């Protein structure tokens, strides 16, 4: 089953690299075009969403644990 992961934080290249790095550690290399990015009207917040197919519940729990423990990540759903 493919599940979307939504990540929001400051709209900076540093945040984008950080978020992609965390997700890649848990799900492997991300395919080009697999990530949908949106910026808030004020360009202060950036959101990313991509569907992943977790192999086990532990994999999904691990990525959310790492994302939510990161200070730069404002929201991870």
How are the elements arranged and paired?
Elements: E1 3-10, H1 13-27, E2 36-39, E3 45-52, H2 57-69, E4 73-76
Antiparallel strand pairs: 1-3, 1-4, 2-3
Helix pairs in contact: 1-2
What does this 3D model show about the protein?
The two termini are 16 Å apart. Strands 2-3-1-4 form a four-stranded antiparallel β-sheet, covered by helices on one side. It contains two helices and four strands, in the order βαββαβ. Helices cover 36% and strands 31% of the residues. The longest helix has 15 residues. The mean pLDDT is 84. It is α+β, with helices and mostly antiparallel strands and 77 residues long.
List keywords for this structure.
single chain; 2 helices; 4 strands; 77 residues
Uncertain residue segments: none
Order of helices and strands: EHEEHE
The count of domains is: 1
Q: Describe the biggest sheet? A: 4 strands, antiparallel
- CATH architectural name: 2-Layer Sandwich
Short précis:
The chain has a single domain (3-76), classed as 2-Layer Sandwich (Alpha-Beta Plaits). The chain is 36% helix and 31% strand.
């Amino acid at each position: 089953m493919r599940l979307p992961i939504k990540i929001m934080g400051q709209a900076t290249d540093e945040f984008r690299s950080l978020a992609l790095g965390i997700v890649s550690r848990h799900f492997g290399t991300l395919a080009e075009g697999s990530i949908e990015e949106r910026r808030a009207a004020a360009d202060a917040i950036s959101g990313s969403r991509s569907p992943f197919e977790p192999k086990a519940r532990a994999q999904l729990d691990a990525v959310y644990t790492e994302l939510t423990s990161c200070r730069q990540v404002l929201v991870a759903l």
